[in-house]
Protein backbone atom coordinates (compact mmCIF):
# COMPACT_ATOMS: atom_id res chain seq x y z
CA UNK A 1 0.00 0.00 0.00
CA UNK A 2 1.30 3.45 -0.92
CA UNK A 3 0.53 6.29 1.49
CA UNK A 4 0.29 9.99 0.62
CA UNK A 5 0.76 11.97 3.82
CA UNK A 6 0.29 15.73 3.58
CA UNK A 7 -0.56 18.88 5.50
CA UNK A 8 -4.20 19.90 5.11
CA UNK A 9 -3.35 23.48 4.15
CA UNK A 10 -2.93 25.00 0.68
CA UNK A 11 0.75 24.12 0.47
CA UNK A 12 0.33 20.46 1.41
CA UNK A 13 -2.75 19.87 -0.73
CA UNK A 14 -1.31 21.57 -3.80
CA UNK A 15 2.04 19.83 -3.47
CA UNK A 16 0.22 16.48 -3.68
CA UNK A 17 -2.03 17.65 -6.51
CA UNK A 18 1.01 18.41 -8.62
CA UNK A 19 2.62 15.05 -7.91
CA UNK A 20 -0.52 13.05 -8.66
CA UNK A 21 -1.25 14.86 -11.90
CA UNK A 22 2.31 14.06 -12.93
CA UNK A 23 2.27 10.49 -11.60
CA UNK A 24 -1.21 9.16 -10.88
CA UNK A 25 -1.09 6.60 -8.11
CA UNK A 26 -3.56 4.68 -6.00
CA UNK A 27 -2.85 5.60 -2.41
CA UNK A 28 -4.17 5.89 1.10
CA UNK A 29 -4.55 9.59 1.95
CA UNK A 30 -3.55 10.82 5.42
CA UNK A 31 -4.00 14.46 6.40
CA UNK A 32 -5.91 16.63 8.86
CA UNK A 33 -6.30 20.18 10.08
CA UNK A 34 -3.25 22.36 9.56
CA UNK A 35 -1.79 21.79 13.00
CA UNK A 36 -2.25 18.03 12.86
CA UNK A 37 1.28 17.27 11.72
CA UNK A 38 2.31 14.10 13.57
CA UNK A 39 0.81 12.09 10.75
CA UNK A 40 3.40 9.40 10.09
CA UNK A 41 2.36 7.55 13.23
CA UNK A 42 -0.85 6.62 11.38
CA UNK A 43 1.22 4.93 8.66
CA UNK A 44 3.31 3.06 11.22
CA UNK A 45 0.20 1.97 13.10
CA UNK A 46 -1.46 0.68 9.92
CA UNK A 47 1.54 -1.54 9.29
CA UNK A 48 0.89 -2.18 5.60
CA UNK A 49 2.94 0.54 3.90
CA UNK A 50 5.13 -0.39 0.96
CA UNK A 51 6.05 3.23 0.10
CA UNK A 52 5.24 6.68 1.46
CA UNK A 53 5.15 10.24 0.15
CA UNK A 54 5.33 12.94 2.85
CA UNK A 55 4.59 16.58 2.05
CA UNK A 56 4.70 19.76 4.11
CA UNK A 57 4.94 18.33 7.63
CA UNK A 58 7.93 18.78 9.92
CA UNK A 59 10.43 15.94 9.82
CA UNK A 60 11.49 16.91 13.33
CA UNK A 61 7.97 16.23 14.65
CA UNK A 62 7.79 12.89 12.81
CA UNK A 63 11.35 11.67 13.27
CA UNK A 64 10.58 8.60 15.38
CA UNK A 65 7.97 7.26 12.97
CA UNK A 66 10.09 8.15 9.94
CA UNK A 67 12.98 6.16 11.35
CA UNK A 68 10.64 3.25 12.04
CA UNK A 69 9.53 3.19 8.40
CA UNK A 70 13.09 3.40 7.13
CA UNK A 71 14.16 0.57 9.44
CA UNK A 72 11.47 -1.54 7.78
CA UNK A 73 13.05 -0.85 4.35
CA UNK A 74 10.10 1.28 3.21
CA UNK A 75 10.88 3.90 0.55
CA UNK A 76 9.97 7.41 1.68
CA UNK A 77 9.89 10.54 -0.49
CA UNK A 78 9.91 13.51 1.88
CA UNK A 79 9.48 17.11 0.67
CA UNK A 80 9.18 19.96 3.15
CA UNK A 81 10.36 23.40 4.33
CA UNK A 82 9.90 23.10 8.12
CA UNK A 83 12.38 22.23 10.87
CA UNK A 84 13.97 18.85 10.23
CA UNK A 85 16.10 17.91 13.22
CA UNK A 86 18.65 15.30 12.14
CA UNK A 87 17.88 13.98 8.66
CA UNK A 88 18.29 10.19 8.64
CA UNK A 89 21.06 8.75 6.50
CA UNK A 90 19.20 6.00 4.68
CA UNK A 91 19.11 4.74 1.11
CA UNK A 92 15.34 4.40 1.54
CA UNK A 93 14.89 8.15 2.12
CA UNK A 94 14.64 10.63 -0.76
CA UNK A 95 14.56 14.01 0.98
CA UNK A 96 13.85 17.28 -0.81
CA UNK A 97 14.23 19.80 2.00
CA UNK A 98 14.75 23.55 1.88
CA UNK A 99 14.39 25.70 5.01
CA UNK A 100 14.66 29.03 3.22
CA UNK A 101 12.00 31.45 4.46
CA UNK A 102 11.08 32.32 0.87
CA UNK A 103 10.12 28.80 -0.22
CA UNK A 104 7.20 26.45 0.34
CA UNK A 105 6.69 22.76 -0.35
CA UNK A 106 4.59 23.34 -3.46
CA UNK A 107 7.34 25.51 -4.97
CA UNK A 108 9.83 22.72 -4.24
CA UNK A 109 7.55 20.24 -6.01
CA UNK A 110 7.08 22.75 -8.83
CA UNK A 111 10.86 22.86 -9.31
CA UNK A 112 11.03 19.06 -9.08
CA UNK A 113 8.44 18.79 -11.88
CA UNK A 114 9.98 21.55 -14.03
CA UNK A 115 7.08 24.01 -13.71
CA UNK A 116 4.46 21.68 -15.19
CA UNK A 117 1.69 23.02 -12.97
CA UNK A 118 2.94 26.55 -12.42
CA UNK A 119 -0.52 28.10 -11.96
CA UNK A 120 -1.16 25.81 -8.99
CA UNK A 121 2.31 26.43 -7.56
CA UNK A 122 1.50 30.15 -7.63
CA UNK A 123 -1.78 29.49 -5.80
CA UNK A 124 0.14 27.66 -3.07
CA UNK A 125 2.75 30.42 -2.78
CA UNK A 126 0.00 32.98 -2.31
CA UNK A 127 -1.63 30.68 0.25
CA UNK A 128 1.64 30.57 2.21
CA UNK A 129 1.79 34.40 2.09
CA UNK A 130 4.78 34.38 -0.27
CA UNK A 131 3.13 37.17 -2.20
CA UNK A 132 6.22 38.69 -3.77
CA UNK A 133 7.46 35.38 -5.14
CA UNK A 134 4.00 34.39 -6.34
CA UNK A 135 3.48 37.75 -8.10
CA UNK A 136 6.91 37.55 -9.73
CA UNK A 137 6.15 34.08 -11.07
CA UNK A 138 2.78 35.26 -12.38
CA UNK A 139 4.48 38.03 -14.37
CA UNK A 140 7.20 35.65 -15.57
CA UNK A 141 4.61 33.23 -16.93
CA UNK A 142 2.44 35.90 -18.53
CA UNK A 143 -0.56 35.61 -16.21
CA UNK A 144 -2.70 38.73 -16.41
CA UNK A 145 -3.58 40.82 -13.36
CA UNK A 146 -7.19 39.64 -13.11
CA UNK A 147 -6.17 35.97 -13.15
CA UNK A 148 -3.34 36.65 -10.71
CA UNK A 149 -5.77 38.19 -8.23
CA UNK A 150 -7.97 35.12 -8.53
CA UNK A 151 -5.01 32.79 -7.89
CA UNK A 152 -4.16 34.86 -4.82
CA UNK A 153 -7.71 34.69 -3.50
CA UNK A 154 -7.90 30.94 -4.16
CA UNK A 155 -4.65 30.31 -2.28
CA UNK A 156 -5.92 32.34 0.66
CA UNK A 157 -9.22 30.44 0.72
CA UNK A 158 -7.66 26.98 0.57
CA UNK A 159 -5.29 27.93 3.36
CA UNK A 160 -8.13 29.46 5.38
CA UNK A 161 -10.01 26.17 5.16
CA UNK A 162 -7.21 24.29 6.97
CA UNK A 163 -7.42 26.12 10.30
CA UNK A 164 -9.46 24.62 13.11
CA UNK A 165 -9.23 22.55 16.25
CA UNK A 166 -10.86 19.62 14.48
CA UNK A 167 -12.31 18.68 11.11
CA UNK A 168 -15.72 19.82 12.31
CA UNK A 169 -14.46 23.42 12.31
CA UNK A 170 -13.60 23.28 8.61
CA UNK A 171 -15.92 23.95 5.69
CA UNK A 172 -14.43 21.03 3.72
CA UNK A 173 -12.32 18.19 5.10
CA UNK A 174 -8.82 18.38 3.54
CA UNK A 175 -9.06 14.88 2.02
CA UNK A 176 -12.34 15.83 0.36
CA UNK A 177 -10.99 19.20 -0.80
CA UNK A 178 -7.93 17.49 -2.31
CA UNK A 179 -10.18 15.04 -4.17
CA UNK A 180 -12.40 17.87 -5.42
CA UNK A 181 -9.47 19.99 -6.60
CA UNK A 182 -7.97 17.01 -8.42
CA UNK A 183 -10.68 17.59 -11.03
CA UNK A 184 -9.23 21.02 -11.92
CA UNK A 185 -5.73 20.71 -13.46
CA UNK A 186 -5.84 24.47 -14.08
CA UNK A 187 -7.01 26.47 -11.04
CA UNK A 188 -8.71 29.07 -13.25
CA UNK A 189 -11.32 26.41 -14.02
CA UNK A 190 -12.67 26.76 -10.48
CA UNK A 191 -13.78 30.29 -11.26
CA UNK A 192 -15.80 29.07 -14.27
CA UNK A 193 -17.52 26.27 -12.35
CA UNK A 194 -20.15 27.79 -10.06
CA UNK A 195 -20.37 24.50 -8.15
CA UNK A 196 -16.63 24.41 -7.39
CA UNK A 197 -15.34 24.53 -3.80
CA UNK A 198 -13.99 28.02 -4.47
CA UNK A 199 -17.47 29.51 -4.09
CA UNK A 200 -18.25 27.68 -0.84
CA UNK A 201 -14.96 28.79 0.72
CA UNK A 202 -15.39 32.34 -0.56
CA UNK A 203 -18.76 32.65 1.15
CA UNK A 204 -17.49 31.19 4.43
CA UNK A 205 -14.43 33.40 4.49
CA UNK A 206 -16.45 36.56 3.90
CA UNK A 207 -18.68 35.75 6.89
CA UNK A 208 -15.77 34.94 9.20
CA UNK A 209 -13.71 37.95 8.21
CA UNK A 210 -16.43 40.36 9.32
CA UNK A 211 -15.64 39.40 12.91
CA UNK A 212 -12.07 40.73 12.64
CA UNK A 213 -12.77 44.07 10.97
CA UNK A 214 -12.90 46.04 14.24
CA UNK A 215 -10.40 44.05 16.31
CA UNK A 216 -7.68 45.95 18.14
CA UNK A 217 -4.40 44.50 19.45
CA UNK A 218 -4.20 43.45 23.10
CA UNK A 219 -0.51 44.37 23.00
CA UNK A 220 1.48 46.63 20.71
CA UNK A 221 5.09 47.79 20.68
CA UNK A 222 7.59 49.17 18.17
CA UNK A 223 8.43 45.60 17.14
CA UNK A 224 5.29 43.48 17.52
CA UNK A 225 1.51 43.32 17.75
CA UNK A 226 -0.58 40.68 19.50
CA UNK A 227 -4.28 39.98 18.90
CA UNK A 228 -6.63 37.72 20.84
CA UNK A 229 -9.60 35.80 19.44
CA UNK A 230 -12.41 34.04 21.36
CA UNK A 231 -13.13 30.33 21.53
CA UNK A 232 -15.44 30.25 18.51
CA UNK A 233 -15.35 28.21 15.27
CA UNK A 234 -15.06 31.37 13.16
CA UNK A 235 -12.03 32.46 15.19
CA UNK A 236 -10.30 29.10 14.80
CA UNK A 237 -10.93 29.20 11.05
CA UNK A 238 -9.77 32.77 10.47
CA UNK A 239 -6.75 32.83 12.79
CA UNK A 240 -4.01 31.90 10.33
CA UNK A 241 -5.16 34.01 7.41
CA UNK A 242 -5.82 36.88 9.83
CA UNK A 243 -2.18 36.62 10.93
CA UNK A 244 -1.07 36.84 7.31
CA UNK A 245 -3.29 39.86 6.74
CA UNK A 246 -1.80 41.63 9.75
CA UNK A 247 1.72 40.85 8.54
CA UNK A 248 0.94 42.31 5.14
CA UNK A 249 -0.49 45.47 6.73
CA UNK A 250 2.63 46.13 8.82
CA UNK A 251 5.59 44.27 7.25
CA UNK A 252 8.01 45.77 9.75
CA UNK A 253 6.34 44.13 12.76
CA UNK A 254 6.08 40.60 14.13
CA UNK A 255 2.50 39.45 14.79
CA UNK A 256 0.84 36.88 16.99
CA UNK A 257 -2.78 35.77 17.05
CA UNK A 258 -3.88 34.00 20.25
CA UNK A 259 -7.09 32.00 19.90
CA UNK A 260 -8.66 30.74 23.11
CA UNK A 261 -9.11 26.96 23.01
CA UNK A 262 -12.40 25.29 23.90
CA UNK A 263 -11.02 24.26 27.31
CA UNK A 264 -10.53 27.97 28.03
CA UNK A 265 -7.30 26.97 29.78
CA UNK A 266 -4.92 27.74 26.93
CA UNK A 267 -4.47 29.33 23.51
CA UNK A 268 -3.62 28.23 20.02
CA UNK A 269 -1.00 30.70 18.79
CA UNK A 270 -0.10 31.76 15.25
CA UNK A 271 3.11 33.78 14.86
CA UNK A 272 4.22 35.67 11.76
CA UNK A 273 7.73 37.06 11.50
CA UNK A 274 8.02 40.54 9.98
CA UNK A 275 7.75 40.30 6.20
CA UNK A 276 10.80 42.55 6.01
CA UNK A 277 12.75 40.02 8.10
CA UNK A 278 11.17 36.59 7.70
CA UNK A 279 13.17 34.93 10.45
CA UNK A 280 12.71 33.59 13.95
CA UNK A 281 9.03 32.62 14.25
CA UNK A 282 10.02 29.00 14.86
CA UNK A 283 12.67 30.04 17.39
CA UNK A 284 10.07 31.99 19.37
CA UNK A 285 7.45 29.23 19.34
CA UNK A 286 9.87 26.40 20.10
CA UNK A 287 10.61 27.99 23.46
CA UNK A 288 7.17 26.68 24.50
CA UNK A 289 6.29 23.02 24.88
CA UNK A 290 3.90 22.56 21.95
CA UNK A 291 5.56 25.07 19.63
CA UNK A 292 6.97 24.49 16.15
CA UNK A 293 6.92 25.71 12.58
CA UNK A 294 9.28 27.50 10.24
CA UNK A 295 11.29 30.70 10.17
CA UNK A 296 8.60 32.92 8.67
CA UNK A 297 5.52 31.43 10.33
CA UNK A 298 5.10 29.19 13.33
CA UNK A 299 2.69 28.36 16.12
CA UNK A 300 1.99 26.91 19.53
CA UNK A 301 -0.81 24.39 19.94
CA UNK A 302 -1.44 24.94 23.66
CA UNK A 303 -0.07 28.04 25.35
CA UNK A 304 -1.37 28.15 28.92
CA UNK A 305 -3.11 31.29 30.15
CA UNK A 306 -0.33 31.68 32.70
CA UNK A 307 2.28 31.75 29.93
CA UNK A 308 0.58 34.50 27.92
CA UNK A 309 2.63 37.34 29.37
CA UNK A 310 5.82 35.30 29.12
CA UNK A 311 5.10 34.59 25.45
CA UNK A 312 4.52 38.27 24.66
CA UNK A 313 7.79 39.13 26.40
CA UNK A 314 9.67 36.50 24.36
CA UNK A 315 8.09 37.71 21.12
CA UNK A 316 8.86 41.35 21.80
CA UNK A 317 12.40 40.69 23.03
CA UNK A 318 13.24 38.53 20.01
CA UNK A 319 12.22 41.19 17.49
CA UNK A 320 13.48 44.29 19.30
Structural overview:
This protein is an alpha/beta fold and 320 residues long. It is built from 13 helices and eleven strands. The chain has helices at residues 10-22, 40-46, 63-71, 105-112, 118-127, 131-140, 145-160, 174-181, 189-192, 197-209, 233-249, 281-285, 308-318; strands at 2-6, 28-30, 51-55, 75-80, 93-97, 219-220, 224-229, 254-260, 266-272, 291-293, 297-304. The strands form two sheets. The chain has a six-stranded mixed beta sheet with strand order 6-7-8-9-11-10, sandwiched between helices. A hairpin with a 3-residue loop joins strand 10 and strand 11 (297-304). Helix 2 (40-46) runs parallel beside helix 3 (63-71) and helix 5 packs across helix 7. The model has no long low-confidence stretch (mean pLDDT 96).
Q: Which ranges are low-confidence, i.e. pLDDT below 50, for 5 or more consecutive residues?
A: none
Distance between the termini: 50 Å
Nearest-integer average pLDDT: 96
- Helix percent reads 40-55%
Helix count, DSSP H or I runs of 4 or more residues: 13
The number of distinct β-strands equals 11
Using the alpha-carbon principal axes, give the shape: globular
Give the DSSP E fraction (strand runs of 2 or more residues): 15-25%
Q: What structural category characterises the helix and strand content?
A: alpha/beta
Which sequence of strands runs across the widest sheet? 6-7-8-9-11-10
Biggest beta sheet summary: 6 strands, mixed
Task: Indicate the radius of gyration in whole angstroms.
Answer: 19 Å
Order of helices and strands: EHEHEHEEHHHHHHHEEHEEHEEH
